[in-house]
Amino acid sequence: MGRKILTVDDSKTIRMIVAKAFKTFDCEVLEGSNGVEGLAVATREKPDVIVLDFTMPIMDGYEMLAKLKSDPDLKSIPVIMLTAEAGREQVLKIAKLGVRDYLIKPFKEEVIIERVSRVIDLKPRGEAVAKIRNFDDEIQLLIVDDKPAIIDQVRNGLADTKWKVDGANAPGQAMDFCGHTLPDVILASLTLPDNGGYSLFQTLRGGVKTKSLPIFGLTVKTDTDQQSKAQQSGFTGVITKPIEFEDLKTKICRTLNLDTSLRYFLQKDGALVMTLPADFSQGVANEVAMYLANKITLAVDAGIDKMVMDLSQLKKADITLIKLGLSTIQMCHELSIKYSMIGSEAVCQECKNYEETKDWRLVMSYQEAMSQLGVKLQVAA
Questions:
Q1: In 206-318, where does DSSP find H-type helix?
Q2: Co-location of 115 and 7 in the same domain
Q3: Alpha-carbon distance values, 293 to 55, 187, 307, 313, 330 (Å)
Q4: Mean of the per-residue pLDDT values for the chain?
Q5: CATH number of the domain that 312 lies in?
Q6: Residue range(s) defining the domain that contains residue 355
Q7: pLDDT tens-digit series, residues 117-159
């Protein structure tokens, strides 16, 4: 049975960092967002070690530690205290209560793993972690349509990716292709002669190697009958013509569970750079937010303590942008990351009109942003 590690911290980001650090080990990471929750989890689960934040609302680390040590069933659980630099002396003062060790935030994954391994025996998980595929990996698509123009249109529409697009004009040709090359995704026309798209779907679903292939139906936007029929038949989804390629990319990425974070995040010049695209929307914001904490965690683990938020492609500052910006800034504060923001002139002006963003200090270029962070970039001759 795996070990139990309880992390108690009001910062969701810190809890995620701890959980990620021990992902490859045979252990269960339990969570509490304050001392009250942490004490309840400790009482119920009897963890092997507790990683406890010193400063929290409702019940802080000191009070929780005192209650742990006064409980006969919990007093023997080793505690590793987390603190900011300013709280280091406080942790040393309460060491007499039984703190096994302490860590100063922010910290690298390898450090907390090393500290916890001093207390409990950590063993790697037996199963290998599957490799995550990225948006920039080569993805094989097969388009089955008797109109060559449609195949060319898809190929051109995805030309900005590394995805490979092949075409077949009939079900038989598509089956031959699948016999020697198994595609990642198939787009099959629903208007092929003799219900060819549906017969191809049934044949593929009956094959051992092809039964789990994602298959999208392809039809015109106004043909709602075909769309409904495809959904009832069990197609993975429907792509409507004229094809909206950003929508197509999104559907394929979700279906294949591709890591699309490279579209928004990269590490450059010793900083984590987050770039929001011109077509920023609620959907994009959700996608960025999904990766945000993990990307910041990886950056901190790599020793990076700077972040640039590039909003220069955006034409306006709406509530969606403001919420994403505020949550990003909060994570930076929690992990002591210095940040800078780049914005277009329009976004800079609009931000001054909102109470939440009036103090944002946006600059106009990447060079200015890095300079604001204390990094001088060499200017190309």
A1: 224-233, 245-256, 282-301
A2: yes
A3: 21, 34, 13, 23, 11
A4: 89
A5: 3.30.750.24
A6: 261-372
A7: 888 888 877 644 456 788 889 999 999 999 999 999 999 999 9
